[in-house]
Amino acid sequence: MFNDKILSCKDCGRDFEFTASEQEFYAEKGFTNEPGRCPECRAARKEQNRNSGGGGGYSRQPREMFPAICATCGKETTVPFQPSGDKPVYCRDCYQPRARNNW
After folding, report:
1. CA-angle at 9, arms to 3 and 13, nearest 5°
2. pLDDT of 8 above 80
3. How far apart are CA 94 and CA 35, in angstroms?
4. Average pLDDT score, the chain
5. 30 by DSSP, 3-state: which?
6. What is the longest distance spanned by two Cα atoms in the chain?
7. Does the structure show a pLDDT above 60 at 50?
8. What whole-number distance in Å separates Cα of residue 53 and Cα of residue 46?
9. The dihedral of CA 81, 83, 86, 92: what is its sign?
10. pLDDT tens digit string along 10-36?
11. What pLDDT sits at residue 65?
């Protein structure tokens, strides 16, 4: 089965233990790589990403929104696509009940 291993952190260089139970967890999740950072450096990196707005190291540009008029209530709204005019566009309030009924 699995045996505890001593690994070296790629950030701080400190040795840390990769326990048999952690290895079993990694195997269950299908992870093929061993951790490269000690628990303290992993936690610090996670906190740094959380504070910098990074979600797993990826940053997303704000979505471009386009003006539209709701086909049901006539209210001005914005949508995340360029309305072509051949299909109705709905505001959030009018769209949600329609979406629920289609599921």
Report:
1. 125
2. yes
3. 48
4. 87
5. coil
6. 66
7. yes
8. 11
9. positive
10. 999 999 999 999 999 999 999 999 999
11. 92
**pLDDT at position 1:** 81
Question: In this predicted structure, what is the pLDDT of residue 63?
Answer: 85
Map out the domains of the chain as residue ranges: 5-51, 66-101
Report the alpha-carbon distance of residue 101 to residue 98 in Å, rounded: 5
Residue 48 clears pLDDT 80, i.e. is over it: yes
Query: What tokens were used for 15?
Result: 């040795």
* Rounded distance between C-alpha atoms, residue 60 and residue 82, angstroms: 20
Total length of the chain: 103
Separation between Cα atoms, residue 86 and residue 84, nearest integer Å? 6
CA atoms within 13 A on the CB side of 66: 9
Taking only Cα atoms into account, the Rg of the chain, rounded to an integer number of angstroms, comes to 24
| Cβ neighbours of 21 (radius 10 Å) | 10
| 8 A C-beta contact, residue 73 and residue 92 | no
